[in-house]
Amino acid sequence: MKPIIGITMGDPASIGPEISVKALCHEDLYDRAKPIIIGDACVMERAARILGMDDSKIHMVKSVDEARFVPGTIDVLDLGLVNADQLMYGKVSALAGEAAFQYVIMAIDLAERRIVDATVTNALSKEAIHLAGHHYSGHTEIYAEYTGTRHYTMMLAHETLRVVHVSTHVSLREACERVKKTRVLEVIRIAHDACRRLGIAEPRIGVAGLNPHSGENGLFGREEIDEIIPAIAEAREEGMTVDGPVPPDTVFSKAIGGWYDIVVTMYHDQGHIPVKVKGFVYDAAHRKWQAVAGVNITLGLPIIRTSVDHGTAFDQVGSGQANELSLLNAIDYAVRMAQGQKR
């Protein structure tokens, strides 16, 4: 029952290879999953040297069925796209962008062919993939196009705080224009389904307002009256337990306190900020991140995709200090969703 989890290495010039090595050194991970890195073995070997690991622990394979899936060995599906000696570490480049993009395409292909049960993505650089000629806003849009998915949304999760978004990578002005009944209802339905897949039998959904005080009965805007409230009403008619629109300045405290299993947010930062405030902990005394926790999940896809909830952190490359907690969280969510799908 242990699912095979395909993990992209992320941008090869980023912290992705280092946190991949760190994460797969956790022996207990192999008690619940069969992880395999999709990337370049030579870059993983360099990351292992930085972290003081023996190079022999990197097991290069050309197909998933060659993987060993045993603690102490890191299986790497080697695509042979990067020369580790020529790569500019910690820098944006078209070379790294192309490699990162191809790792993602391979992960999607393996999942669609059911060779892996779920995919997990390390961070890529949007600037780098654009330099390589691939004009996407991020992983979510790549997965949507290559799986032919039209109706999807992003979920961020840290512990019991889960948020989904009506819109993500658009301007704030456009985000307000996208708050329409049809889309809000669609995201409520996706949120309900996601919670059921995670084993929550009767999901409790909180829907955030768009405006301060959720519009104050039209005083600060009519989006709640015209779009959000009708969507909530229809969701209730379909049998879902939905509350809202809840003022955005209180809905997340309620969710953390156990009122809701998931929160529907109206735009990118409305959902991202509370999750990252809770999951990202900086130690000012030692000038290092004590925790970088949280998971990014694309809902609505025909395959499972979870991701780290942080960027490429080019400034940390080579230091060995990058934190692998978010990657471990993402792998754990992928395992839960894969097991739920099998059941």
Question: How would you explain this protein's 3D organization?
Answer:
With 343 residues, the chain is an alpha/beta fold. The chain has two domains: 4-149 and 305-342, Isopropylmalate Dehydrogenase (3-Layer(aba) Sandwich), CATH 3.40.718; 153-275, Isopropylmalate Dehydrogenase (3-Layer(aba) Sandwich). It contains eleven helices and 14 strands. The protein has helices at residues 16-24, 41-50, 94-112, 126-131, 139-147, 172-177, 181-197, 223-237, 248-256, 268-279, 325-342, and strands spanning 4-8, 34-39, 58-61, 74-78, 118-121, 153-158, 161-165, 204-208, 241-246, 262-265, 280-283, 288-292, 295-299, 305-308. Helix 7 (181-197) crosses helix 8 (223-237).
Give a topology summary.
Blueprint: E1 4-8, H1 16-24, E2 34-39, H2 41-50, E3 58-61, E4 74-78, H3 94-112, E5 118-121, H4 126-131, H5 139-147, E6 153-158, E7 161-165, H6 172-177, H7 181-197, E8 204-208, H8 223-237, E9 241-246, H9 248-256, E10 262-265, H10 268-279, E11 280-283, E12 288-292, E13 295-299, E14 305-308, H11 325-342
Parallel strand pairs: 1-2, 1-5, 2-4, 3-4, 5-14, 7-10, 8-9, 8-10
Antiparallel strand pairs: 6-7, 6-13, 11-12, 13-14
